[in-house]
Amino acid sequence: MSEIFAAVEALLAKARDGGDLPEPAERERLRKAAGLTQVEVAEALSTRRETFAKWEAGTAQPRAPKRGAYAFLLAGLADIHGTQGLDGWLTLARQARPLDTGTRTDVTEGE
Fold first, then answer.
1. Crossing angle between the packed helical segments 24-33 and 49-57, to the nearest 10 degrees
2. pLDDT interval class at 5 (50, 70, 90)
3. Pairing with 66, which of 16, 17, 85, 101 sits 20 to 30 Å away (CA)?
4. What percent helix, strand, coil does the chain show, rounded to 5?
């Protein structure tokens, strides 16, 4: 039975992996507007600069948990520098949080 839940979790993770990043040109614009280099962002996301360059260009996509961290960074930069083009991604990106923050919002009092 655990295989079924693992398969469902994989599907949910796949569904979460979409729609939370802006178009590649906007990714680059936000980074440059903040005066950040590809190396700085890659180091912060614990990846190689070459890998990050592919994410920024849209030729490769980051996977969780780095995708969530990248989306959260872009949302923060959009809050500072504004957005250009479609910004439907912004709501999802703002929600990106690490799962191990130690806080739970789904717990009701008395549990």
1. 120
2. confident
3. 85
4. 55, 0, 45
